[in-house]
Write a structure and sequence with these properties.
Its cofactor is Mg(2+). The structure is a single chain. The chain is of the alpha/beta class. It has a domain of 117 residues: Rossmann fold (3-Layer(aba) Sandwich). Helices cover 22% and strands 23% of the residues. Helix 2 packs parallel to helix 4. It is globular and about 40 Å long. The structure holds ligand FFO and adenosine-5'-triphosphate.
């Protein structure tokens, strides 16, 4: 799946990014979410940058994952705008510098858009294998805010071809509430 997405042409990537932006903008959670975590595309992932520009224009706050400096395979989330200084992490992915005060607690996010390698229509997600997102969002399993309808929404972003029949889930895997692709929005939970 990683090989397939890396082989997409710049034209195909740009086209997919535009269509993904339409899927996301029309989704019910777009207007409701003020604090949105997103990622910068790597390894052929569907590119959310067109959507990021849309978030900025709509006065929403955008956040990017930063590898936690001490807690192994956990993520921090830092505010991202046009002026945010970025540097490459050990995977070669750009992330905000952590010398500023713009960190947000993961539970304060309204919407988190997950990168993924493959997904299924039940909300199963296969990631890059580090367990970063599963560890960081483990708190959502016992999230009291869910009763008030304030639960952090967890959505995956993918090229449509990244759908597979079934992802075997392990006990630590956090299922997604939905997946947005260049073709459709899946609501899974
Ligand atoms: N765009 C993006 N950002 C992200 C993630 C992601 O999947 N995509 N992550 C999601 O967790 C975290 C980083 N996790 C990652 C885990 C492995 C690799 C990776 O490329 N692994 C290589 C081996 C690299 C090496 O060991 O030096 C590989 O598997 O080929 C990249 C990111 C946080 N940021
Ligand atoms: N909440 C957790 N607590 C402890 N270990 C965990 C937790 N979540 C995942 N792990 C460990 O992390 C490893 C990688 O998990 P997994 O293969 O599900 O990663 P992934 O979801 O593909 O990666 P990523 O989220 O970084 O894209 C697993 O072997 C698992 O033991």
């Amino acid at each position: 799946m990683r090989k397939k997405r890396r082989s997409l042409s710049p034209f195909q990537q740009k086209n997919a990014a535009q269509k993904l932006t339409s899927t996301l903008t029309l989704s019910p959670f777009f207007s409701r979410s003020k604090h949105v975590a997103i990622y910068l595309a790597n390894d052929g992932e569907i590119d959310p940058s067109v959507f990021i520009t849309k978030l900025w224009k709509s006065n929403k706050h955008c956040y990017l994952p930063v590898l936690h400096p001490t807690k192994k395979n956990h993520l921090w989330f830092y505010r991202y705008n046009q002026k945010t200084p970025l540097k490459k992490n050990r995977f070669g992915i750009l992330e905000p510098l952590i010398n500023n005060k713009s960190r947000i607690s993961p539970w304060a996010l309204n919407l988190v858009l997950f990168p993924l390698v493959a997904f299924d229509s039940q909300g199963g997600r296969l990631g890059m294998g580090g367990g970063f997102y599963d560890r960081t969002f483990e708190f959502t399993r016992k999230d009291k805010a869910s009763a008030l309808g304030k639960r952090t929404q967890l959505y995956g972003l993918a090229h449509h071809f990244q759908e597979v029949a079934s992802i075997p889930l392990e006990q630590w895997d956090i299922p997604l509430h939905g997946i947005a692709t260049d073709k459709q929005l899946f609501i899974t939970h």
